[in-house]
Amino acid sequence: MNPIYSRLVSTGSYLPERILDNAQLSRMVDTSDEWIMARTGIRARHIAAPGESSVDMATAAALRALGDSGLDIQEIDLVIVATTTPDQIFPSTACILQSRLGNRGAAAFDVQAVCTGFIYALATADRFIRSGGARHALVVGVETMSRIVDWTDRSTCILFGDGAGAVVLSASSEPGILSTHLHADGSYAGLLQVPEGEKYLAMQGNAVFRMAVRTLGEIVQETLAANGMQASDIDWLVPHQANVRIIQATAEKLGMPMERVVVTVAHHGNVSAASVPLALDDAARRGCFLPGQTLLLEAFGGGFTWGSALLRWG
Ligand code: UT7
């Protein structure tokens, strides 16, 4: 029997209307556009409207991806949502999203791996499809980070934003996703967390930064080695959008020029699990990716968790 692969069919994304730029932020906390730009490369972030939920944003992104997939919603047989900020403890965001989209019967569940959530969800959907457990999967990353950010803490509130990104994957005889790699080390939980019983995220930024640079450097090498590839075989790096300095450090380790790295962090900040699919959709819609090109997706986040996916476009 021929092997089954999962192929990325379409992408979609959504950013809330309200933009909070660095100038506005510097009137809220003791910071400046210069500091934020120099340390993070972030210029603005989008903030969900009062009453606008994670499911609302996930629905908007999913509808765009589904619209471009040519599939009927009933053909979707797997819905996975990566989120750290569900609207409710249960039912899962995926179940509410499924119902909003008018699908019945598909398996639907959430994945929680913070900023690495989308890569975890993509890897999970890929395994479902490869094993014959699903044929058409909707994979979404969505976050309402603005509701777990302490807007009086200048060391964290400058970083995060809200939004959603989505992809549709279908079974195919051609790859598609070439490999996925997932890791976690829970012994670092205390460096980036919403502490027990508290409402807002707390982060030791400097320690997280150093670990992110080291770990992402390692996972891109692991991904290349698993596929017998060199960095020069990668056409596009699509990294987690947390801080442009982390992105530049990873590109430098790979020896990749920044022209081949998708960078969207300036206009939406760190949208955790939505960052990678937001960047992917942005570059896809700008026509950056050509059929047959090789894309390396990677992310790092709370847990710590980290992961990557190597895929062929088109
Ligand atoms: O998605 C994965 C999760 N998160 C990340 O990847 C984020 C990882 N960390 C980072 O991106 C960086 O650590 C930050 C951007 C958060 C901070 O940059 P940094 O270069 O690590 O700065 P720092 O924390 O070492 O702070 C340097 C100085 C401090 O002042 P002193 O102690 O040197 O006087 C801070 O108090 O900058 C000060 N500072 C600020 N100043 C102006 C911290 N936040 C701000 C601010 N505006 N917003």
How is the secondary structure organized here?
Elements lengths: L4 E10 L3 E4 H4 L7 H8 L3 E4 L6 H16 L8 E5 L10 H9 L5 E5 L5 H14 L5 E9 L9 H4 L4 E11 L4 E8 L7 E2 L8 E2 L1 H22 L9 E4 L4 H11 L10 H4 L6 H11 L8 E8 L3 E8 L2
Parallel strand pairs: 4-5, 4-6, 11-12
Antiparallel strand pairs: 1-7, 2-3, 6-7, 8-13, 9-10, 12-13
Helix pairs in contact: 3-4, 7-8
Task: Tell me what the structure shows.
There is one protein chain. With 314 residues, this protein is an alpha/beta fold. It has helices at 22-25, 33-40, 54-69, 93-101, 117-130, 154-157, 205-226, 244-254, 265-268, 275-285, and strands at 5-14, 18-21, 44-47, 78-82, 107-111, 136-144, 162-172, 177-184, 192-193, 202-203, 236-239, 294-301, 305-312. The radius of gyration is 18 Å and the shape is globular. The mean pLDDT is 97. The site of oxa(dethia)-CoA has 20 residues, from helix 2, helix 6, helix 7 and strand 12.
In short:
With 314 residues, the chain is an alpha/beta fold. It has 10 helices and 13 strands.
Structure summary, number of beta strands = 13
CATH class of the largest domain: Alpha Beta
CATH architecture of the largest domain: 3-Layer(aba) Sandwich
Largest sheet: 5 strands, mixed
**Head-to-tail CA distance between termini:** 24 Å
Ligands present: oxa(dethia)-CoA
Low-pLDDT residue intervals, each spanning 5 or more residues:
none
> CATH superfamily of the largest domain, please?
Thiolase/Chalcone synthase
Give me the secondary-structure category. Answer: alpha/beta
CATH topology of the largest domain: Peroxisomal Thiolase, Chain A, domain 1
Mean pLDDT: 97
Helix content: 25-40%
- What is the general shape? globular
Tell me the β content.
25-35%
Radius of gyration from the CA trace?
18 Å
Number of helices: 10
